Amino acid sequence: MKLLATFAIVTALALTGCTQTPTTESQQQQAVLSSNSKISVEMSEFSFSPASIRLPAGESTTVEVINVGSMLHTFTVNDLGIDVRLAAGERETITVTPEQTGSSDSLCTIENHAALGMVGTVIVE
Ligand SMILES: [Cu+2]
After folding, report:
1. Dmax (CA) of the chain
2. How many other C-beta atoms lie within 10 A of the C-beta of residue 67?
3. What is the CATH architecture of 36-124?
4. What is the pLDDT of residue 37?
5. Mean pLDDT in runs of 10 for the chain (125 residues)?
6. pLDDT for res 35
7. Ligand 1 centroid to 7 CA: how many Å?
8. From CA 91, how far away is CA 115, in angstroms rounded?
9. 117/125 Cα distance (integer angstroms)
10. Residues bordering ligand 1, an ion, CB closer than 5 Å
């Protein structure tokens, strides 16, 4: 909180103390914030919810993977280098910036979980 308050004061001084295009820095920060969207994927026996997710190409997306089931699961997307392994009740947040558009398979790599339904699709567009 202390850091935030200090930042706000500094920003206010910068805005009032300068008459020439003082907003460049804050405009850049807003662009970064707006391009970073967030998606959640829940894992359980034996499915991903949602099974299909969409990611914007060339942009950073935060993906929160949550294991709401009672067994060990993974959220694995080989094409995108994603391999999140979580025990029951665990969650992990990753950041993905896919460069190429297209469709990739997601799956759980534990035993026969994929065959039982733990498969999905990641669409980069
Ligand atoms: Cu699994």
Report:
1. 64
2. 24
3. Sandwich (2.60)
4. 87
5. 42 42 47 67 98 96 98 98 98 96 98 98 97
6. 53
7. 44
8. 23
9. 25
10. 73, 108, 110, 113, 118
